Amino acid sequence: MKLRYGNAAEAGMCESRISKLENLQEQWVERGVAPIMISLIARKGIIVSHKLFVDPDYDKSYGPMKLDTIFQLASISKPVTASAVMLLVEEGKVALELPVQDYIPEFTGENKEKVLVHHLMTHTSGIAEDWIWEMANSGSAHVDMEQCPNNLHPDVYKYLTTGHKAPLNFYPGSEMNYCGYGFLLLTEIIRRVTGQNIHEFATERMFQPLGMNDTYYIVPPEQYARVAKHPPNAPFPRYADYENVIKPMGGSGLCSTVHDMAIFGQTFLNKGSYDGFRLLSKLGVQKMTMNQIPGVSSRLDGEFFKEACWGLGWGISGSKQDYTGTLRSAATFSHTGRGNTLFMVDPENELITLNFQVTMKRVNNRPYHYFEYFNNAALASILD
């Protein structure tokens, strides 16, 4: 199934409810929730809403903004990076049950031989990421930058190498603790197995064949003007310096449009293929989007989840109460990105929702509540 534009009735959705949701987003922008918001809703392969809402002052300062504005997706990079690894798994070049040390021998320390590749994808490795940040930013890492490979960004190499000696906070697999560094290790595994960095590999093997022509781990300079800017007073002001922030980190760094990411979501709804191109097998998609850590708990964004419920790169909704909303199915898989961006796929309801924005206001200092409002309203528009 290939995405196409159509009306709500074709997709078994209520036109008036979709219209009300679009009006609600316009009100959010008018109230200062976000100076720019671009959303897309698709069901059964039919795009029923694809809208841009922008504050006139923001548009004047950074625009003109368009529907194909490129956003910094931050952590939404993770399921894309995980998919690149799964592609190599299906080709017999990477094994998720092997130790990370098999691919990166420098990754050493107490119990580090117990960290398997799948622990990186489910945030259960135990790697002390705070330790890595502290060492890298304090200048204590003492990384030999002359050894940096030609196809790695120097900052990426510094952070990657610093983490090789990082201690573990807990025994691998015993709990979930969100860890972006694990996905940097995954990109290094890709690089060592294929000789290509994540940008080169994903562009050649994923983005171009899928027709995701506005998706980049490294945004070319000629496209910088299309990247949504974060004002200096935004919650994450470092994203305002987009030319220096955009780096192929694996767990962050990906930049894309809502339409391109809808293609990626539809590929998963299609069980791994899109418009004649097969990215992953049906079984690969199934494994990525099911809970891989049953019985494992986690703390995330100040909340405790008795059942972490995480797939390979994707957050799985399960019985959790979170930004994916009250009405979605338990099979829903999703991810958000700091900055703020939302990407949700509900396979039982055949629904894809995306909401990319630069959030300025929060509810009780929690950034994703507007995503919950958005998702519930979109799900409530389903009629059949």
TrEMBL record:
What's the EC number here?
3.4.16.4
Q: Does the keyword Hydrolase apply?
A: yes
User: Which keywords does this chain's UniProt record carry?
Assistant: Carboxypeptidase, Hydrolase, Protease
Q: Name one Pfam family in it.
A: Beta-lactamase
Domain Beta-lactamase-related, which positions?
A: 58-352
Record flagged with keyword Protease:
yes
Write down the superkingdom of origin.
Bacteria
Which one of the record's GO molecular function terms can you name?
A: serine-type D-Ala-D-Ala carboxypeptidase activity
Q: What class of enzyme is it?
A: hydrolase
Q: Which InterPro entries match?
A: Beta-lactam-related, Diverse_Enzym_Activities
Name of the molecule in the record = D-alanyl-D-alanine carboxypeptidase
Taxonomic lineage of this organism?
Bacteria, Bacillati, Bacillota, Bacilli, Bacillales
